[in-house]
Amino acid sequence: MLDYLIKNAVVLDGTGKDRYAADIGIAGEHIKTIGHLEDVKAEEVIDATNMFVMPGIIDAVNHSDTHWTILEEPSQESLLRQGITTIIGGNCGSSLAPSIEIAALESIRKWADISQANINWKTLGEFLDELERHPLGVNFCTLVGHGTLKRNVFEDMSRKPTEEDVEKMNLLLNNALNEGAFGISFGLAFSQNVPAHQYEINTLVSVVEKNNGVAAFHMRDEGKNLLASIGEVIDITRTIGVSTEISHLKAIGRSAWERFPNALEILRSAKKEGLDINANVFPYERTGSLLFTLLPEWAKKGEREKILASFRNPQEREKILDGIRDLTLHFDRFTIASTLRKSGLIGKTLEEAAAILNMTPEETMVELLLINELTITIFGQTLQESNIETLLKEPFIHISSDGIGKSGDSSWYSLKENLIHPRSFGTVPRVLGRYVREKKIISWEKAIEKMTGAVADKFHIKKRGKIMKGYSADLVIFDPDKIIDKATYENPYQYPYGIERVFINGVTVVQKGIYRGALEGKVLRRS
C-alpha cells in the first residue's frame, strides 16, 4: 500500500532528459515506484492530468540562516510555496557556525540585527544538532563562511593573517567539513578588512578539495573589475583542482555590461579546459545588496566602528564624500529596501531620499549608513535583461534565488515597513513562467535541471534533486499554463500562482497552492 499515488503526470525528472508520462508512487519518505501503475492501491490518489511534476528545487544560494529567519520563521513559507524544498546556507562568506568566539556572529551583522541573538552552539556539528531539535519547513545544508572562520581566530580584521592564524582556520574548517558542511564560501566583496590574501584562500580551499567539497565565491568585483574577479576564481580552481561555484554571477553597471561577453568566453574556455567550475544566476534585473558596498574601496576597509568613526570625523567624512562623487553613481537607480532603524525612506530612491532630507545624495548615503550602523539594504537597477537570458542558456549555469525564506500571511507582511527582494517569493515561478513558457529562452527540462539535479550533483547532495526510485520524495506538482510569480519590488510579499502541491520527505506541505503548516524538513549533512 502506497501513501500517495500521483497519476497521469508529465515527469520532468531533474536530469535534463526529455519529459515523459508516468505515475509516481510514494511510500514513507521515498519514491517507491515510477511507471504506468495499474491496480496499485494508495491512501491518496492524486490526479495530475495536465500537470507537470518536478523534483523539489534545491536553492544553491540562500540566506535564511544569516538573516536569522531559519530560526525565527522556520516554516520558510515563501520558499515552499514556490517549490523550494532544500536550501544551501552559509553563503557569501558568512555562516552561523562555527562560533567558537561570539565575535564570529559579526560576519552576519550586515544582514541581521544580532543584538538579541542567543546561541547555544560552538561547532558546526552542535549548530546542526540544535537545528534538528526544532521543526523545519525546508531541508537545510550549509557551507562554512570564510569571514566566520576569520572572526573565530582573530578580532583585528584589518591585519594580515599569520601562518598560525591560517592554520587555526584550517583546523576549524576541517572539523566543520567532518561534521557535515558541504564546503566553504567566500564573500570577497564584503570584507570590512584588507582583501583576503592568496595564500590564505588557497590554503583553505585545499582543505575543501581534500574533503571533496565545494568552494563558492561571491567575487571581489561584479562591476568594472569583473574580468579580473572571474580570473581569480578560475586561477584558484586550476591551481587547487577544487570544485568551484561563482555565486549569483552578474555584470553590474554599463562598464561591466561591455565586458560581459568576454567574461562568458573566459568561463567557457575554463570549462573546455576541464575545470570543475560553475556559476549561478537569479532571474531579476535589480540586485539586492548592501548600501555599504557602494562606498569607495578604500573607505570600506577596517572594522565597523572604525568606518563609522570616519563618518563622524569632519575631515574624513569630506574625503569620503569626494570619493563617492568620483564614482559618478546613478542615485535614481538605487532604492532603499530595509534599514536597521526606521528611516521613513523605505521604497524611496537615494535621489528621492536626498530631496526629502534636503541633502546631496552623497551626504544622504553617508548619513543613512551612520544612522543604521552600515546595516541598510538596497535594490540596484544595475543589471541587463539580455545578460540574464544569455546566462540561463549556458550549460554550466545553475539557477538560485539568493533570497531568504519568510513565513506567515502575506497580507500581514505587506504592512511591514521593510522590503525584501521579490526573489524570496518568486524566483522559481518567474523562471518557469516568464523565461520558459513566455519567452522560450530555455526548455522546461533544462531550466528544471539547473535548479534540481545539477545542483545536487555539484554539491554532492545525495538522493535528492531527481525523480528516481529510492530518492527522497521531494516533489512539486505545478500547472505549466498558469505558473507565474506575483512578487514585485513595491510589494514583494505575494505568493505565486500555479504551484498545486509540494511534498517534502513524502509529506504534503503545500496543497492547492496553500501552505498546510507542516514542518517536514531535515538537516542534511555531507557524508
TrEMBL record:
Question: SUPFAM superfamilies, alphabetically?
Answer: Composite domain of metallo-dependent hydrolases, Metallo-dependent hydrolases
A GO cellular component annotation here is:
cytosol
Alphabetized Pfam families for the sequence:
Amidohydro_3 (PF07969)
Output the Gene Ontology terms for molecular function: hydrolase activity, acting on carbon-nitrogen (but not peptide) bonds, in cyclic amides; hydrolase activity, acting on carbon-nitrogen (but not peptide) bonds, in linear amides
Residues forming the Amidohydrolase domain are: 44-509
The coiled-coil segments of this chain are: none
**InterPro entries per record:** Amidohydro_3, D-aminoacylase_insert_dom_sf, Metal-dep_hydrolase_composite, Metal_Hydrolase, Metallo-dep_Hydrolases_sf
Which protein is depicted?
Answer: Amidohydrolase 3 domain-containing protein
Which organism is this entry from? Candidatus Ryanbacteria bacterium RIFCSPHIGHO2_01_45_13
